[in-house]
Amino acid sequence: MTVYETIEAPAQAAGIADDKAMLRAAAELTRDIATARPAIYWPDMLLSALVGYAGLAGAILLDRPWAALLCAAVAVLALYRALLFIHELTHIHRDALPGFRFAWNLLVGIPMLIPSFMYEGVHTLHHARTRYGTAEDPEYLPLALMKPWSLPTFLVVAALLPIGLLLRSAVLVPLGLVIPPLRRLVWGRASALAINPSFERRPPEGEFARMVLWQELGASLWAIALLASPLWLGWRPLAIAIAVVAVTAVFNQLRTLVAHLWQNEGEAMTVTAQYLDSVNVPPPGIWAELWAPVGLRYHATHHLLPSMPYHALPEAHRRLAAHCGTGSTYHQASYPGMAMLIGRIARSTMRRA
């Protein structure tokens, strides 16, 4: 029986002991590829942003519907890839890629109203051994154990993201400057890319607080300009941009939906249990590179090696798969594609109807 035939069974995640041989192999076999390479990061991010904005411009400016839709599709895929570098920013050492964080925020984060502070200091909590899968994990919900309506709600919330981001940066953040309780509320409840509705963020401190200040300022000024733009450009450019970001957000939410099995009910888990609750979608399938770019098709391997740069994850996976072999614990986190994983979660929720 293959791993694909057994994934419908409930996972007793909290009771899985650590596979120490696998954890040791993960550390020892990948030391030589653990350095972030600027020659890969910079061109990838810059080209993705350039193609994304060119596609967005085409979607706005072209009159033929088929050409505009094609440009919009290109914009969604390219901007999606550019945005996902925010995940890398949370893991790479601050000194590894000089200037990369600033450039990404200037070119992608602030224009898309998702500056890096919304993920930095949040995503690392998801990787904390004692927090993953618990009520203190900002990026975890037991989706496979929830009611059927939770999945469409999960996607609808993502579709509304661009409206929420505009209101947050153009209205709520400026108002918070003169209404301290609102400022604390916006920071605590609306300043993190989190899916756990009970997560409340702590106030920023020190150098991070200074970084938040300039990113918030840039995002607010840009959001105000966007809301004012119909006065001289009409509504078409803003409406198309909102639609492109909404589709991008839904695309990312679908990826998030299949990044884990979502079967933990709040108990602390071992590293191996966290790995088995996460998902790899390795080759030979090619579509995963579109819906899970920047190394995220190897999400389970990423949970074993959180600091591994995205460009090294394919090689890390090949080495570990060859070393551990078919039928090993490592093999059990690999799945064939998004459709099967969504179907598995949907069937799990239907059983709770």
From TrEMBL:
GO terms for molecular function: oxidoreductase activity, acting on paired donors, with oxidation of a pair of donors resulting in the reduction of molecular oxygen to two molecules of water. The chain crosses the membrane at residues 39-60, 66-86, 98-119, 154-179, 211-232, 238-254. The keyword Membrane applies. GO terms for cellular component: membrane. The keyword Transmembrane applies. Residues 66-332 form the Fatty acid desaturase domain. It comes from the Bacteria. Keywords: Membrane, Transmembrane, Transmembrane helix. InterPro entries: FA_desaturase_dom, Fatty_acid_desaturase. This is Fatty acid desaturase. It comes from Novosphingobium piscinae. The lineage of its organism: Bacteria, Pseudomonadati, Pseudomonadota, Alphaproteobacteria, Sphingomonadales.
